[in-house]
Amino acid sequence: MSTASDRARPDAGLGRLALARRAAALGGTRDAVVLTSRVPALPPAVAAAVAEEWGLAIGRGASGFDAFAVPSFRLLAARPRAQQVLRAVSRRTNLVLPGSRAVVAGEGALATTLARTLSTLGAHAILAAAPRGARLRAHLDGLETADAEDVPGIAADYVLLTGEGQPPADPARLRGVVADASYDGSGLAAAAFGEPARPGVRRLAGGPALVVDIPAPLPADLPDADGLAWGLVDLVVATALLVRGDHDVDARLAELAVA
Amino acid sequence: MSARIRDAALWPEGLERIRFAQSFMPVTAAVADGLRASGAVAGLRIGVSDVLEPKTASVALALQEAGAEVVVTCAGRNTDDAVAAALVHSGIPVYADSRAEAADDRENVLRLLDHRPQVIVDDGSWTIRLAHTERPDILDGLRGATEQTTSGVRPLRTMAREGALRVPVIAANDARTKSLFDNAHGTGQAVVFAILDLLGEPIAARDVVVAGFGPVGAGIARHARALGARVTIAEVDPVAALQAVFAGYPVEALKDAAAHADLLISATGVARTVDVEHLLALPDGAAVAVGGGVRQEIALRAAAEAGAVEVARAGAVAGLRLPNGRVVRVLDDGNCINVSAAEGNPIQIMDLSFGVQLAAVGHLLGSDLSPGVHALPRAVDDAVAAHALRAFGGVLDERSPHQLRFLDSWTP
C-alpha cells in the first residue's frame, strides 16, 4: 500500500508507477505504442507525463496491441477491477454478498476472478461462459456453470456482466441486481431507466432489474484516481513500455509484478 | 411530538432508502406481522437505541405498525440524518443528530428514557445501562430489553453477576440466527468494503492482519482472503486460534504480526487491543481500523499520551506520526468502521438480526422472566431462521422416522 506521505501528495503522478518504472528500465526504442481500444484510456495528464518522462506516446485503436491477449495483463487487471466492481455493488446497494446467488457472465480472467472471489466469500457463484474450456475449469473449481445464452433465465440475486467474449446483455431481459463489470462499458446494452432506487442504483423502466452504476476502471481526471485506478494506470503504462522494447510482455509483466 | 434531529426536510431521501431496505427484509416483516396479529406490542412504549440507518428505521416502523409507540435514539457518529428525518416524518420521536458529540449522545439517550419506555431494543447496551444509572425511576415500568451485540451483552452479564441488573434482558446477540450470520457475514462484508472504500487501494497480495478470530474476525478474514489478501490472525483464545490455523491462516502474536501488516483490523470488541506497542510495530504507511468494536479498541488516547501526533487528514483517513517517526493511517478515528464509515451491515443480514430482535421482544412480553440476561429459546431462534431460509431459497429437510427412533433410543 502507498505510504502516508504518498497519500498526502495526490499529484504524485509517475512516482506511483512502480511497475512502469521497472519496465522503463528494461529499455526500448519506439516513441509511440498503440494499444487496443479495449484497454482503458489513460487520464490525459498521465499520458502527457509518460510522454515527457519516457518519451512514449500511448495511443488506443482497434488494431492496436491487444493487452488482454497477454495472460499476465489479464490477471493483473482482473484483481483491481473485481475489487472496484464488488466494492461498488456492496456500497451502492448495501445488499449481502454471502448467501446470495450471483451469475458472472464472461469468458476471461475478470469473470473467473469475480466468480472465485464471490464463491470464497460465501456466495453461490455461477460462471456463464460459452467456451467449453472456461466452463470446464470453473466446473473443476467447484463452481456451477451455465451457457452465456441462459443468463436471463437463471434465478439470481446478482448478474455481473464482464463483456469478455460476449455481446452486451439486454437489461430488460435480466432480473435482480445487475452490474456492468466490464473494462469498457461493453457488458450491458443501453436501456431506459425509471426513478433511482437509491443513490447509484437505478430501476429499469418496465423491467424487474436494479442496475448498479459501476465506475469506469480509470477516471478522466487525476484528482479522482484512487490507489486502485493508479494500479491500473501503472499496468497499462508498463505494458506499453514493454511493447516499445519488443520484450516478452507476458513473462516480463509477471516478473516485474512479483518482484 | 418532540425530536432532536439535524434537518427535518431531509425526509424524502431517507424514506426512499428505507423503502429500498424494506423490500429486502422479509424476515423482519414476517415477525412484525406476528407481533401485530398477536397484539403483543399494541400500546406499548418501545425505545429503539441503535445505529440509525435505513434498516434500523425499518424495525422502528415495523414496531410502530404493530401498534407500539416507538422512540428512537442513536449516537451521532452512527446517525444518518435523512433517515432520522424520515422517521420523524412518520411520527416517531427521534433523538439523533450526526453532529452530536459524546455529551449530546448521552443527552439524547436520556431524552429517550424520559419517554419511560416499557421495552428497550438496544445495541451496545448503553441505553439499558444509563437507565439503571441515570433514570432508575423508570425501571419499575420497564418490562425488559433486548441486546444485539457481543460488546453490549458482556457488561450486562457483569451487572447480573453483581446484582445490579433490575430487568430481564434477552441476549439477542447470542441467538444462532444472529451471531452466526450478522457477526460473521454481515460485519465481515461491511468492514472489509468500508475499509477498501476509505483506502481506495488494492488489497490483493497485501498483508492483512486480523486481531480476533471470533465470528466477526473470521468473517473479516474470509472477505479479505477472497479479495486476494494474505491474511494473518492474532488470537488470545487457544481454541479460536486453532480454528484459524485449520482455516489456513498463519497465527502470530499481534506485535509480531503488526510488524508486517499493510492493514491491521481489530475485531475483538475489547478496548486497547491495538495498543501503543502494536502501533509502534506497524510499518510506515500501514493502515489500522476497527471492525465491530468498542471505543479505544485502538489505543489512540494512550498513543497521544506517548507522543503520537496527527500530521495529515484526508476525509476519514488520519495520518498519525508515532514517536518512532513512522506514520500510520488510522481509519475513521478508530470507530466501528462498518457503521461509522459505511451504511452498516448488509440489509438481508440485518433482516435476520432484526427478526431475532423482534422475536426477542415477543418472547420477553410473553414470558415471566426474572431480572438477568436470558437466552432466546431455541424454538424462537429456529422460527426466525426458517423464515430466512425460505427468503434465501433454501429448503429445510426433515428427520425420518428411523432417525427419530435412533435419537430417542438408548439401548446399546
Low-confidence stretches of chain B: none
CATH superfamily of the largest domain in chain B: Adenosylhomocysteinase-like
Name the CATH superfamily classification of the largest domain in chain A.
NAD(P)-binding Rossmann-like Domain
Integer average pLDDT of chain B = 95
Name the structural class of chain A: alpha/beta
Helix and strand string of chain A, N-terminal first?
Answer: HHEHEHEHEHEEEEEEHH
How many separate domains of chain A?
2
- Averaging pLDDT over every residue of chain A, what do you get? 89
Beta fraction of the residues of chain B?
5-15%
Specify the number of helices of chain A: 8
List the helices and strands and how they pair.
The complex is a heterodimer of chains A (259) and B (412).
Chain A: H1 4-7, H2 18-25, E1 32-36, H3 44-54, E2 57-61, H4 71-93, E3 101-105, H5 109-120, E4 124-128, H6 132-140, E5 144-146, E6 158-161, E7 177-180, E8 193-198, E9 201-204, E10 210-212, H7 227-244, H8 249-258
Parallel strand pairs in A: 1-2, 3-4, 3-6, 4-5, 6-7, 7-10
Antiparallel strand pairs in A: 8-9, 9-10
Chain B: H1 11-22, H2 26-38, E1 45-49, H3 54-65, E2 69-73, H4 81-89, E3 94-95, H5 102-113, E4 119-122, H6 126-134, E5 144-147, H7 150-161, E6 168-171, H8 176-199, E7 207-211, H9 215-226, E8 230-234, H10 238-246, H11 254-258, E9 263-266, H12 276-281, E10 287-290, H13 300-305, E11 309-314, E12 317-321, E13 327-331, H14 337-340, H15 347-366, E14 372-374, H16 378-391, H17 401-408
Parallel strand pairs in B: 1-2, 1-4, 2-3, 4-5, 5-6, 6-14, 7-8, 7-9, 9-10, 10-13
Antiparallel strand pairs in B: 11-12, 12-13
